[in-house]
Structures are given as C-alpha cells and as structure tokens.
Amino acid sequence: MTRHGHMPLGGENPPRSTYYDQGKFGRLFPSLPPFAMDSPQLREALKEIGKRGGIMDPKDDLDDPVGLIINPAKNVENPNNPNLTAGITFLGQFLDHDMTFDPTSSLERQQDPETIANFRTPFLELDSLYGSGPNVSPHLYDQTTAGGGIKFLVESIPGSDAVSRDGKLRFDLPRNSQNVALIGDPRNDENLIVSQLHLAFLKFHNAVVDHVKSKTGWTNPAEVFAEAQRLVRWHYQWIIVHEFLPATVGQKTVDKVLTKGRKFYNWRNLPFIPVEFAVAAYRFGHSQVRPSYRANFGPKPDDSGQFIALIFDDGRHASPNPDASDPNDLRGGKRAARRFIDWQTFFDFGDKRVRPNKKIDTKLSSVLFNLPGIPGAEPQSLAQRNLLRHLTFSVPSGQRVAKAMCEDLLSSEDLADLKPYQLETRTPLWFYILREADVLGKDGRHLGPVGGRIVAEVFIGLLEGDRLSYLRQDPEWKPTLSSTGDFTMVDLLKFAGVVPAL
Q1: Is there a contact between 138 and 221 (Cβ–Cβ < 8 Å)?
Q2: What residues are paired with 274 via a beta bridge?
Q3: DSSP class of residue 140?
C-alpha cells in the first residue's frame, strides 16, 4: 500500500517505451491515455491555473529586486532552496538546449510527438556549442593565427566598467552587426546568465585547446581539436552525472539507475527524447528561477555599481525602450559594460557570496507570468504555456504515470487546490511532478520519485546510448583537468578563466 492507501500496480511489468527513430520525440508510456480530453473548457481551466495572480503565482514584490535577494520576508511565498545554488538553474537550461530543439509545435493544436523532429541530436555532446565543427560552422571559430580555426570566437566588452578588479577584460558572445549572437543555439542568448554560461563553455574549450597543445606538443589542428573536444565533453558529462543529477534528483536515485539499470527509458538503436521528460519532468527548473539576481559586483572593490535586476522585466523597471542596448533587466541579446556575470553569486566558491535558487514546487517566480517577446495572441505566462503543452502532446496524468512506475501516489488532498478544476485526481504531469517534489522531495529540495526517476533515466540513458560518451567508452574514467579526481562547475569556471579575483 502507498502512504495514502493507494495500491500500486503489482504483479505486472510497467509499460515500456516503444522504439522511435533518432531525432524524433517519443513516449515512455505509450499505452497511457491523455490526462483529459481537450476542450475549450479544459483550456480555460489550465489558463486559470497558470495565470498571473493565480494559484501558481507567489506574487513576488517586483518593485524591490534587491529585497527579493536579501530580505527573507520577501521569500515566504516563494521560498529558497538551501541545497541548490542559483547557477544550477541555468546549467539545467544549458543542458536542455543541448538535448532538444523543437521550433515547430503549436500550443493550439494536438500533435503526435512521433511526427515532430528534434532539431538537436539527443545526446549530451555539446552540439549547441560546437555546431557542426570548424569546417561546417566556421563562423563560430576564431580564424586568426591565435585561434587557428579551432578555438571559439569570443569578444571583449567595451567600457571601463567591464574591466575586472584584477585588470582583466570581460567578454561577451561574438555578435553580428545587429547584435545577434553567433552561437550554435540561439536560445543560449535568452538571458544574460545562460549567455555568459555559454561563453564560459567557449572559453573552457579554448583553455583546453591550449592544455592539449602544451601536454602533447601536437601541431595538427584537427588532432588538437578532436582531443580538446573529447576532454571538454567528458568533463561536462562528469559534471552532469556527479554534480547536476545528485543535486536535482538525489544521490540514491542516481546510484540506482547507474547500478541497477533503467526500467522505463529504452530504445532499439539510438535514444529519443520522451515527451514525459521534455514537456513535464524536465520543466521542473522553471520553478527554481529567482525573480531577481545579482549579476555582478561591479568594477570597484566596495561593490558599488553592482548589477542587480529582475531576470525579465515586464516594463516596471526596464529602460523606456526595452530594445535599448542596456535595459534594466537580465534579458539576453544585449551588450553593454555592465552586462557580465560574476559567478561567485551562482556557484559556491567558498567566499559566502553564493545565493540559492528556489525550491521545486508549484510556485513560479512572478516575472515568469509575463514573458517578454511572446506574440500578443499567445499566452504570456510560462505556467500557462507549460500546462497547455500537455494537451498539445496528449501527456498522461501524473497519477497514471506514478501507477505505471509503481510509485506512491499523491492524495487528492495533496492536490486540493486543483479541486475547483476537477484535476486533483487526473493532474497534468508537470504540475504533479512539482507538487510531488514539494511533498516527497525533502520539501522541494530535489525531485520526488516520479520526476526524479524520469530525469535520471533520460540523462543517464542518453549518455549510455552515445558511443562516444565517457560512460560508454570508459565508465571508470576520472577527470584529468583537476588534481582531485573530481570536477565541478566551479572547477570548469576556474579552468576557463572566467572568475577573476574579487
């Protein structure tokens, strides 16, 4: 019996994923029906649940971006996560953009995921960074003698405020004359933080190129690039398995999947991306986004001039023209002297400057209920858009997925706020997974059993399905770019040289 008296399905094998072609989306549980029949009434109910000022909106005080960071009283309805730092959210966004890219689906019509192409190869191989390589994507690479066509192109930020306290220049993504970033995935310029994280990976690769040349003495550019790319990918994959996943799903879940194998995510030849993951489970990160961040500490030792702003601004504090070069929020696609990141706010360097992200629960920071750049006829709320995607892809309910996985079900009382919409027993999977984390995931510190298992199996499965990953080629491999045998995001940022002394 479960903790709420529900009998899990026993004595039978849970539904297994069917087999899909690489490059397509698919399903973990193809035999499960949609959580509800699409109808105008249901769409209105989902919009009501996910609307600005609704049950998912914590009603943050967006007039006080600084107070949202430093004043505990401002976080009561949108609590911090003491176990996860602010940077994990954006690492998760970066990982998402490495796995999936679907520019074709619509919120207005149902679609079969098997017919929708994933325009990103479903591996954790950094094709969002490398594009198709130096020969096919030369615009991403530095063609000068110093770059040799195998280092990434990066550009310094003009202005004295963009010089760090130890005299080093600050950098930005390379951009064309219209300020469009020249990168392998345009989504990595959606906000300043993920933009600068992409930059950090560019500079990490460049530093590894220098490392390979120094250690091997090789002069053949193709050989140097191939070895540098392998090292970058394997250290990145190590971070996923040994830092990101334990923090996100819990170490016990990671260990179970690694040692006892996957139960639900299977394929015949090559991996695919399940809609239960892409539409529901992996969107947990939206609940971790803070309304505001301290992007940097400014150029002066007394921290004057530090840049603190909302991640997105609906017009409350932004420059009169949000298309200006330096709006007063952290949107991407801009270059200005103050638009850089000091990573000590986002990852723990031991100097007590790091900030937490938000708990995994059914509250999304209020800035996400009025997204910039969305056409006026479409929902502006991220919560509404996520919920409506369950209709687009006919996603099963959280309860049916939990039963199929033989996991404890949330009770109808755990989902009492959905009773007015008659969805407390047939809950959209994304909402269910967020509430499960709050109830069963150590108070929202990590995902619960359903969400955590899906996320862990897909990530580890993608690595096990990639014949070039370290888990497939050399599962006993240890990182070589640090002296500890471990490698974290802090190590990566230091190796990349993007953390000047403060």
Answers
A1: no
A2: 26
A3: G
- CB environment 26-59: b (16+ within 10 A), e (fewer): bbbbeebebbbeeeeebbebbbebbbbebbbbbe
DSSP secondary structure string for all residues of 359-376: -SSS---GGGGS-TT--T
Per the CB < 8 A criterion, the answer to whether 287 and 42 are in contact is no
pTM attached to this predicted model:
0.91
Q: Is 444 left (phi over 0), alpha (psi -120 to 50) or beta?
A: left
Mention every residue, 6+ apart, whose C-beta is less than 8 A from residue 73: none
Per the CB < 8 A criterion, the answer to whether 158 and 103 are in contact is no
Cβ neighbours, 10 Å, residue 60: 25
Rg of the chain on CA atoms, in Å? 22
Calpha distance 51→107 (Å, rounded) = 16
151-180 residue pLDDT tens: 999 999 988 777 777 778 899 999 999 999
The pLDDT tens digits for 53-66 are 999 999 999 999 99
Q: DSSP label at 270?
A: S
- The dihedral built from the CA positions of residue 430, 434, 435 and 437, taken in this order, carries a sign that is positive
Please report, as a single letter, which amino acid is at residue 274: P
Best CA proximity match to 197, nearest among 111, 293, 112, 92 = 92
Amino acid type, 371: L
Nearest to 390 by CA among 363, 423, 366, 439: 423
